[in-house]
Amino acid sequence: MSGAALGLEIVFVFFLALFLLHRYGDFKKQHRLVIIATLLAWYLCFLIVFILPLDVSTTIYNRCKLAVNSSPAESNGSYVTLAPSKQKCFKPWSYIPNGIMPIFWRVVYWTSQFLTWILLPFMQSYARSGGFSITGKIKTALIENAIYYGTYLLIFGAFLIYVAVNPNFNLQWNQLQTIGIAAANTWGLFLLVLLLGYGLVEIPRSHWNGAKRGYLLMKTYFKAAKLMTEKADAEENLEDIMEEVRKVSESIKYNHPLRKCVDTILKKCPTEYQERMGRNMDDYEDFDERQNSYPSEKSLVKLHKQVIYSVQRHRRTQVQWQILLEQAFYLEDVAKNETSATRQFVHTFHSQEPENKIIRYFYTPSVEWYWECLLRPWFYRVLAVVLATFSVIVVWSECTFFSTKPVLSLFAVFIQLAEKTYNYIYIEMACFLTIFFLSICVYSTVFRIRVFNYYYLASHHQTDAYSLLFSGMLFCRLTPPLCLNFLGLTHMDATISHKNTQPTAYTSIMGSMRVLSFIADGFYIYYPMLVVILCIATYFSLGTRCLNLLGFQQFMGDSEMTSDLIDEGKELIRREKRKRQRQEEGENRRREWKERYGNRDDSTRNRVVHTDQKESSFSETNTNRSLSKYTRSNGRTERDRIELLQDAEPLDFNADSINDDPLEADSGR
């Protein structure tokens, strides 16, 4: 049963990471190495979070066995019995045999560190490079990462000098390894507290605001105004880049040595631009080597990089605009249906995606109305209260987890109470919920933040390779200090509890942080208290207000700029709504026209052709020529009439002005 629990979690976490990566990445268009590297980074980080509760329960059982073996005891079946007090150490259902977890953690930890510090930064530069060959991309990646790797060596050298100069330490390999782990965890903990302070407040608040329909609709209008500006900027940037590509394509002819590079750039351009450039390109002229107006290979590399970036940005804004429109239309439908007397949810537009029959069978319009208009707001409010309670417990425990007598950390109190009764199910559930909530607060912030257009995780397969790799780097750097912080909150870390007990397998591979006392007794203890200040700053939206003062439009209810953008977004949504309504009305009228008059037009055309064939069989050559002219003109007139009717503007069509009998209408004309 123990091996089954570990195996099931390994398989489940793999499919979870694969599902999330499929939502944000594009398996068809992005490079396979980028997908594999990002999947491996996400998978290892999620795996640490899910397996750590099993390590805690196994460690508690091993501590019980050591306590029993240190006293007169006797063995009885699947548990060990302490003779004096008849205490029983039951083996947990998810028990993992000794020797497996240390090897597992060592492989997972060092693989994730290799990814985040060496491989993923190199692949970032490689994916973003505009080189036309593998060698050129590798060279560019090495040059860009020279400063990056030099910074690591400088930081590691500083720790190394500190330990070497201190006479209290004898530098050994294990201590050197601990210094490297401490340096990585210190950097990760610094960023972890910043992201955690934001997520502890923003996640409960976002769910509470999710129950406010008016708030969500106003924020959607605000996003629409901002996204339209970004969309227009992306289109303008793409036009400028395509104009440069056109000039380069016209100047470099078919027999130029750099023509292959130009063809590579053209393949990355959108299809409509490729066709336009192909029509205007004349390759009959040879290039003149004496002219100096030809671009260099270096400039083509830069242009190639700009094309990749501009095309990706343009495609992303187009998809996000369509998604935002659907969201705005749906929120407006919810606002309209709240006052519905029939309690049937009515959509303004039909879904463009094919509907699942099973879902529509259970999720009827009546069920949808009760969920969207009645139950969902209350569900979000209750969930927000539960999440806010968890956030308060986390903040309290972060400020008091260093106190062992008395134990003030609530998570440590819960685990110690369950440890006395050896309720392993409760221990694992409490550990899982705690570390899962911490992970949600940190990882959701990673998915939400946006550093201009440098880093941005966009759903619906719109995230570029650079952002995917960057997210993998962040996850690998944040997860180890997150787990150490969790073990400190629960007093499972001997460095925090100051007890001479068996450590968990995870902390055993980290080594003793006593090698660096100012980190173990100072930074790791007092820096997490900063989360209180960050939570207060997030609650009062100090960061949002600062960005708004700097000119970055942020959604603030008491801002005049926000009100202007909301009005602008509302007008944009109204315009797009009218446009879509006209399109649907036009399609409906064309469909009705074909259903009512399509068969009669076909029969009229068949009668005309049959009469022409009959008359042509009894006529002379001249008569045949004249009749054929008449037939062609008549057929041409008939075709023109049908084409004009099919291409007519739906808004100008009025069914009441058309006679019921098409023959009378034809004779009238």
TrEMBL record:
Residues 618-634 have a biased composition (Polar residues). It is found in: Membrane. Keywords: Coiled coil, Membrane, Transmembrane, Transmembrane helix. GO terms for biological process: adrenergic receptor signaling pathway. Pfam families: LMBR1 (PF04791). Residues 598-669 are annotated as: Disordered. One of its GO terms (cellular component) is membrane. This is LMBD2 protein. The gene is Lmbrd2.
